[in-house]
Design brief:
Blueprint lengths: L14 H5 L7 H24 L14 H21 L3 H25 L4
C-alpha cells in the first residue's frame, strides 16, 4: 500500500501569539455564578434560622433575616439586574464578591448569637 504524503511540520507561532491566553475570562458568567451563590446562600439562611432551637420562645432569631435581606437587596439584586442586561460585567463581579464577603461577616456574627442546642 502506498503511504500518504506527510504534511509539512507546522510553522512555529510568533512569540506574541504563543503567550496569549486562549480564552479570556468571561466576567458575565463569573458575576452570574457569584450572584447565584449569594442567592442560594440567602435562601439557605431561612432554612437554617427555621431550625434554630428556640431560645426563650420569643422568635427573635427571625430578626437575623433583616440584615441578610439588606445584603441581598444591596448586592445581589443589582448584580442580577446587571447580569441580565449585560452591562458592567467586571463591576458586577466585584459587587457579587463584596456581597459574599458581607454575608460571611454577618453570618459569622449571627452564628455566635443563635442559641446552641
Amino acid at each position: 500500500m502506498p503511504r500518504e504524503p506527510r504534511s509539512p511540520s507546522p510553522r512555529p507561532r510568533p512569540v506574541n501569539q504563543a503567550i496569549t491566553v486562549s480564552t479570556p475570562l468571561n466576567f458575565r458568567k463569573v458575576a452570574a455564578l457569584l450572584a447565584g451563590a449569594g442567592t442560594l446562600f440567602w435562601l439557605y439562611t431561612f432554612y437554617f434560622i427555621a431550625h434554630v432551637p428556640p431560645g426563650d420562645g420569643t422568635g427573635f432569631q427571625w430578626l437575623a433575616v433583616f440584615p441578610l435581606g439588606m445584603v441581598f437587596g444591596l448586592f445581589f439584586l443589582p448584580a442580577w439586574l446587571l447580569v441580565a442586561i449585560g452591562r458592567l460585567p467586571r463591576f458586577t463581579t466585584a459587587v457579587g464578591l463584596c456581597g459574599l464577603i458581607a454575608f460571611a461577616i454577618i453570618w459569622a456574627q449571627l452564628l455566635n448569637e443563635f442559641p446552641k442546642s
